[in-house]
């Protein structure tokens, strides 16, 4: 026996090398209908393969622990930033990867198979970097972006307020210019990374009521008058902290105004178009991983002397799940391409893609849980985490009801 | 050691995570529509070459890393992985024929005669055929010293000190350069290629040769008679007594 083990250890090592993958071999077969690489270029496949390998090795084995302990894995995030995940669509001169939005979507999808919550945080961080890269001054870019793309520092996006959720344009945080500073007053709710982030991209009112009175600011942790609320206890998204961000006579230097006064709401909405595709991409990853887990389970679990996969109910359910994932993926990737093209209809397509993919992919997670039976309800199995993490995607980045408003407004426009 | 040239052999194999299947005819492993990647031992070789290059750069030295692969057009994907990790250039010897270890060793020798590297790194074996022959055959053809199953490598002026994993433990040897090095699992942990480096990899030079260009006879010397899957594992049995167990070990399992 000892001899046998020895030989095995010598012949097998490569297969065990690089932290044995926790993923099923399902997706390793290119012919699968849930293969996410179908339709991509060779380059895109390379990026996808790196992201999936990183997710398999660095996220997947830890996902349940991070969820359970509500742990923010800053060291793993920084490791990912070394590979370029900290500024996927930020320009290269400040350490970004300079990729397009379609590539970014493919990467977020692959990463979130390992941990939805952590990937969603990376997507928010990326959006903040993109805002500074796109609308910020050259000084702001050089000052903030190198440490954000390396994830030496973390960023949060602050739009939502206790009294301004879906109706974001009524936000009441004020910014009053006094000499060399703006003085900010108000509070922001449900801020991902709130308290742990170093840089906050904040929307505040410099002018009159309505969207035209809103401006965008970079607020640093440590600025006088900035504080944080208690750590929220959430159903999912537990690997990132959520807190209120409170500004009481918070002094922000005038050079931290991003773009012009009054440009804030337009920046916020442009950011959200991309944010919706990012979040939809994270839902795709949750659905992909949930289907992979279901496939694994139904082949092994036996009832009535047959594997679950032998029952037509299981087969049809799996086919519906795969179909639903494929349709979601097509919509998300189309919207991502429209972002790259700066297409005039991008807002409604991002909204429809987010609406469809986050609803459909949540349903896939739930269907996978059902196929797992009682085991799916146990925290020992992964599918409950995907379900809880993906649930919030139907609420944030604009609720799915707001997505319907955006789409119907475009439909009925004259 | 001012200017070191390191060649790294990179074989394209069925990915380690794929559940392999034997084809219906029982003549080969199914490779169509199956994910492929770089042989993990070769990945360790590429990492080692890049680490040597980085260490030399810190000491104001220079090294050039040349990745080489023999096989069909798709082998270029494997070379691109090596380039994304940090190799400087790549050489593809294209062939759609079956390439056995001796043929690969001869092809590598032909390219080595042109490129004149100081060191050639290969995986100790490829995880598809597990031959564990190419490095040794190449050393023989070149009449170079070889250090196989390396778990640690230290370079000094025109020589390297290598710790090898052998049956009884570890052995340390020193050899002059040029030399052949084959990698074992514990030599290093390969890095991930970063996104920007993946994008840059396709701009790095890739030279192509055909077997005819190199004038090498690649005719297979070995004939594969049959490929079969391992026997299905049988379920366990509960035995009544120790005597029963000893009896079964002696007469059924025949291990006593």
Structure explained in plain terms:
The complex is a heterodimer of chains A (414) and B (256). Chain A is α+β, with helices and mostly antiparallel strands and 414 residues long. Chain A is built from 13 helices and ten strands. Chain A has a four-stranded mixed sheet. Chain A is globular. Residues 1-29 of chain A have low confidence and may be disordered. The termini of chain B are far apart. In chain B, helix 2 packs across helix 5. In chain B, the strands form two sheets. Chain B has a nine-stranded mixed sheet with strand order 9-8-7-10-6-1-4-5-11, sandwiched between helices. A two-stranded antiparallel ribbon of chain B has the order 2-3. The longest helix of chain B has 19 residues, at 40-58. Chain B has a single domain (3-251), classed as 3-Layer(aba) Sandwich (Rossmann fold). Chain B has 256 residues and is of the alpha/beta class. Chain B has seven helices and eleven strands. In chain B, helix 2 (75-85) links the parallel strand 4 and strand 5. Classes of the chains: A alpha+beta (414), B alpha/beta (256). Chains A and B meet through helix 2 and helix 3 of A and helix 1, helix 2 and helix 5 of B.
Q: What is this structure's SSE topology?
A:
The complex is a heterodimer of chains A (414) and B (256).
Chain A (H helix, E strand, L loop, with lengths): L1 H10 L1 H4 L25 H18 L3 H7 L4 H9 L18 H12 L3 H20 L2 H12 L5 E4 L15 E5 L2 E12 L6 E7 L8 E7 L5 E3 L13 E12 L3 E2 L5 H37 L1 E2 L2 E2 L4 H30 L4 H26 L11 H9 L8 H13 L2
Parallel strand pairs in A: 1-4
Antiparallel strand pairs in A: 2-3, 3-7, 4-5, 5-8, 6-7, 9-10
Helix pairs in contact in A: 3-6, 6-9, 6-10, 7-8, 7-9, 9-10, 9-11, 9-12, 10-11, 11-12, 11-13
Chain B lengths: L2 E7 L2 E3 L21 E3 L1 H19 L3 E10 L3 H11 L3 E6 L6 H15 L3 E5 L10 H9 L3 E11 L2 E8 L2 E8 L2 E5 L11 H7 L4 E5 H4 L27 H10 L5
Parallel strand pairs in B: 1-4, 1-6, 4-5, 5-11, 6-10, 7-10
Antiparallel strand pairs in B: 2-3, 7-8, 8-9
Helix pairs in contact in B: 2-5, 3-4
């Amino acid at each position: 026996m000892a001899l046998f083990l020895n030989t095995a250890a010598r012949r097998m090592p490569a297969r065990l090398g690089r932290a044995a993958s926790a993923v099923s071999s399902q997706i390793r077969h290119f012919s699968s209908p849930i293969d996410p690489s179908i339709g991509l270029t060779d380059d895109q496949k390379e990026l996808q393969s790196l992201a999936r390998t990183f997710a398999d090795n660095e996220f997947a084995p830890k996902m349940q622990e991070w969820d359970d302990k509500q742990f923010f894995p800053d060291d793993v995030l920084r490791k990912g930033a070394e590979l370029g995940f900290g500024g996927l669509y930020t320009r290269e001169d400040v350490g970004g990867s300079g990729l397009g939005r379609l590539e970014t979507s493919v990467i977020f999808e692959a990463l979130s198979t390992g941990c939805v919550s952590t990937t969603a945080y990376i997507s928010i961080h990326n959006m903040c970097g993109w805002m500074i890269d796109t609308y910020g001054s050259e000084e702001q870019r050089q000052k903030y972006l190198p440490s954000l793309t390396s994830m030496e520092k973390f960023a949060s996006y602050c739009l939502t307020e206790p009294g301004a959720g879906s109706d974001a344009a009524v936000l009441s945080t004020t910014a009053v210019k006094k000499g060399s500073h703006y003085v900010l007053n108000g509070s922001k709710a449900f801020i991902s990374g709130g308290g742990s982030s170093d840089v906050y991209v904040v929307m505040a009112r410099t002018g009159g009521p309505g969207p035209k009175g809103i401006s965008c600011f970079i607020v640093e942790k440590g600025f006088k008058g900035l504080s944080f609320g208690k750590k929220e206890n959430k159903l999912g998204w537990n690997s990132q902290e959520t807190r209120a961000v409170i500004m009481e006579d918070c002094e922000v230097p005038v050079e931290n105004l991003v773009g012009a006064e009054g440009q804030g709401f337009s920046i916020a909405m442009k950011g959200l178009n991309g944010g919706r595709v990012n979040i939809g991409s994270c839902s795709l990853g949750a659905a992909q991983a949930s289907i992979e887990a279901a496939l694994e389970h139904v082949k092994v679990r036996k009832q009535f002397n047959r594997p679950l996969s032998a029952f037509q109910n299981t087969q049809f359910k799996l086919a519906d799940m795969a179909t639903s994932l494929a349709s979601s993926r097509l919509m998300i990737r189309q919207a991502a391409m429209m972002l790259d093209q700066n297409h005039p209809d991008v807002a409604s397509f991002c909204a429809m893609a987010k609406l469809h993919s986050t609803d459909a992919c949540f349903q896939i997670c739930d269907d996978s849980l059902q196929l797992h039976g009682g085991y799916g309800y146990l925290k020992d199995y992964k599918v409950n985490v995907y379900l809880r993490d993906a649930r919030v995607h139907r609420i944030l980045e604009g609720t799915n009801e707001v997505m319907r408003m955006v789409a119907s407004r475009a439909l009925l426009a004259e | 050691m001012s200017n070191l040239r390191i060649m790294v052999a990179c074989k394209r194999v069925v990915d380690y995570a794929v559940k392999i299947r034997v084809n219906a005819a029982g003549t080969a492993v199914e490779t169509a529509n199956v994910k492929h990647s770089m042989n993990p031992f070769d990945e360790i070789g590429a990492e080692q070459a890049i680490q040597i290059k980085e260490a030399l750069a810190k000491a104001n030295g220079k090294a050039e890393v040349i990745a080489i692969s023999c096989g069909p057009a798709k082998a270029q994907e494997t070379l691109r992985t090596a380039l994304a990790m940090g190799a400087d250039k790549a050489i593809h010897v294209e062939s759609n024929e079956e390439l056995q270890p001796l043929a690969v060793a001869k092809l590598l020798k032909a390219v080595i005669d042109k490129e004149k590297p100081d060191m050639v790194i290969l995986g100790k074996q490829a995880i598809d055929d597990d031959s564990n022959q190419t490095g040794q055959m190449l050393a023989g053809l070149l009449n170079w010293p070889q250090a196989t199953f390396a778990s640690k490598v230290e370079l000094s002026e025109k020589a390297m000190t290598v710790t090898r994993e052998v049956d009884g433990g570890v052995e340390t040897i020193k050899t002059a350069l040029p030399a052949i090095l084959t990698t074992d699992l514990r030599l290093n942990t390969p890095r991930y290629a970063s996104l920007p480096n993946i994008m840059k990899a396709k701009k790095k030079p890739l030279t192509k040769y055909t077997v005819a260009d190199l004038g090498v006879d690649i005719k297979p010397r070995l004939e594969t008679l049959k490929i079969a899957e391992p026997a299905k594992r049988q379920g366990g049995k509960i035995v009544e007594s120790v005597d029963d167990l000893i009896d079964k070990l002696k007469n059924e399992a025949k291990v006593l």
